[in-house]
Amino acid sequence: MPRIPAVPDSDAGPFGRLAYRLARRWFGEVPEPMAVGRHHRRLFWADAVAELAWQAAATGLPANVRELAVYRTATVVGCSWCVDFGAMLQRLSGLDVDRLAEMDAVATSPRFTGAERLAIAYADAMTAQPMTVTDDQVAELEREFGRAGLVELTRMIAVENMRARANHALGITDQGFAASCAVPPRGSAQRSLDGSSTP
To answer: Which residues form a coiled coil (predicted)?
Structure first.
């Protein structure tokens, strides 16, 4: 249950109801961050436009690299809604969701490529408090993905930090989007910001 209630269809206004209807068509139900966000109608539309723009623009990196970095960010922040929704998006994109349960063993698991490990480590470094990004790490990422790829990866990890922290603060938790995936709703383990793991 979020800390403030979702705006029901009856109070969402005609354009809000249209947006809800589209969301139900795409996802089966209205995502709670969307329905809670409807309390501030101008920010609701700003968020919608921004999400569509990021989705359209962030296409330079391989989807598996980008989505794993975003997913890892959500687990580090502890946003169970983002973990749940992200697992669903990866499944719908045809990515390997079974390996998400091995995220805490990414350094040794053979199910992750070298490029994926670099992106996940960058997500960890960017999301840590304080950040632990180094010059050498950025240089290695630039060699692997190019400058545009590095910018895209950085931006999408930052965007997921914003989403995950807002959802976590507002008490928005998983809705069961990933129920058909073989992934626990909060991932196999949830990493705290200092790098330790909690069950």
So the answer is: none
